[in-house]
Amino acid sequence: MESIYITTPIYYVNDRPHMGHAYASIHADVLARYSRLAGRNTFFLTGADEHGEKIAKAATENGELTQAFVNRNAQLFIKAWKELGVEPDDFVRTTLPAHKAYVSQALQRLYNQGDIYQAEYEGLYSIGQERFVTEKELIDGKLPEDKEPPQLRRETNYFFRMEKYRIWVKEFIESNPQLIQPENYAREMLALLEEPIGDLSISRPSSRLSWGIPLPWDADHVTYVWFDALLSYVSPLATNEAGFARYWPNVRHIIGKDILRPHTLFWLAMCKALELDPYKKLFVSGHLLGSDGRKMSKSLNNGVDPLAAAEKYTSDVLRFVLVREIPFGVDGVISEKVIENRLDKDLANDLGNLVSRTLTMIGLYCDFRVPVSSAYADEEAALQEQARHLQEGIMEWVDDMKIRLAMENVMAFVREMNRYVSACAPWKLAKDPSQRERLQAVLQTLHEGLVVVSTLLSPVLPEKMKALRVALGVEEQPQSLHQPWQFDRGVEVTNAPFILFAKVNTES
Ligand code: ME8
């Protein structure tokens, strides 16, 4: 059986989770759920990035001990994922003893093999982004995404010989055209790799920052937060030989474009130096924008809170809108208006109406029992064929993180079924006893079509599709993506009123 390992970024826990975090985690969860449904051994990791200056500063500003502060905030992430239907197999925290031990061991290995050296360094450091920046990147003296200007630092640091691996990294990306997706991000990194990238400062003096993993050979320095965080993709499997062998060879990272550099320049060079196989895919998202068209962020207060949105519209609706609205990799706006329009159109209008028409007619004309019929015409065969095509094709889109395209195709099938209902007009067939067989064929086809839709949408809308399947009289959880079309289920649908999605804007 194929195995797959899916990761989200390991988020900074200096605050509670926001919509950008939910965006990455929901995409990863959807990918994990599709993989499980496709019969793959799936390991899905998320977690908390708990070291670094940003966290230490936030804890101090909050008047809290740093460990207590991160303990509290990490719980907010764990709870948020539960509320959003995100179900990771593991939650790594960079303050866990096992993670720290793995980081120390990796550092010692690089130090022993001569890949780490000490030097004096002067540079501008952005605490917001947790990295040294160049003058060229600054606009009006600061990074556009930061509130504060970077600080000038002159200190002794340890350096990882990243430049030594530059040509290898460049050639690795060039020879794996599918590695970084969408590919414009690969081109962006290849352009950077044309020029020297320098070595990477991987330590901070503990006299200035004590919050971090001490270097194993020099306790006066702690590890740079990015060097620490990237290794959290490996540390949960480091002491589990079988798990590592099973999952590591097929690891797929999901990140936002803000952290593309560390995931290509730092991480690929680190993997090469540590003799770790590099990732199989890096899926890079664009940024969610607020209704003002600017990157959604806490400081601009232009975002929608994910938990408030889930409470207002349900977590399933939020999940659907996040994967349906914006092509992965591109920036796009998420606002309450966007959520409501999508809910009304796709979910309430197209899918919700199809469900209620189907259930009502099976109740009315067949006493709630799904008929068994053999009076099939070309229209039924065409729908069956479209369903089969979707079942077979959906993982290709999902595996390329084209979940929006997958949703578009499923919704096109739903609309096709709505057209089929109108064209067949079962309410007319019901009036003519000689058309009884035809009526049964239509209702059976609608029911089976909805079983397929509920399977295909279950990774995105897990709770809603569970409810729909119960109403349709089939097992709550689909067993596989490819369950063949059935003609003789003979099950009963619910006889209670069933509204899958209620419209928000009833006048539209
Ligand atoms: O960077 N739109 O953590 P972080 C879309 N700890 N996605 C967004 C977003 C937005 N407006 N804002 C944030 C870190 N994200 C490091 C990662 S990994 C080894 C270490 C998402 O809490 C996006 O996926 O700042 C981005 O890459 C991530 O949150 C950054 O989360």
Short note summarizing the structure:
48% of the residues lie in helices and 15% in strands. The chain is built from 18 helices and 15 strands. α12 crosses α13, α13 (336-366) runs parallel beside α15 and α14 packs parallel to α17 (436-457).
Structure in words:
The protein has 508 residues and is of the alpha/beta class. It has two domains: 3-285, Rossmann fold (3-Layer(aba) Sandwich), CATH 3.40.50.620; 348-472, Isoleucyl-tRNA Synthetase, Domain 1 (Orthogonal Bundle). It has 18 helices and 15 strands. The protein has helices at residues 19-37, 53-61, 66-83, 97-112, 166-175, 183-192, 225-230, 235-238, 241-247, 260-273, 306-313, 315-325, 336-366, 378-399, 403-424, 426-429, 436-457, 462-472, and strands spanning 3-12, 41-49, 90-93, 116-126, 131-133, 151-160, 180-181, 200-201, 203-205, 214-215, 218-223, 251-256, 281-285, 288-289, 332-333. The protein has a six-stranded parallel beta sheet. A four-stranded antiparallel beta sheet has the order 5-4-6-8, with helices on one face. Strands 9-11-10 form a three-stranded antiparallel beta sheet. Strand 1, helix 1 (19-37) and strand 2 form a beta-alpha-beta unit. The mean pLDDT is 96. The protein binds ligand ME8. Ligand ME8 is lined by residues 9-12, 20-21, 23-24, 49, 229-230, 255-256, 258-259, 285, 287-288, 295-296. Ligand ME8 binds at residues 9-12, 20-21, 23-24, 49, 229-230, 255-256, 258-259, 285, 287-288, 295-296.
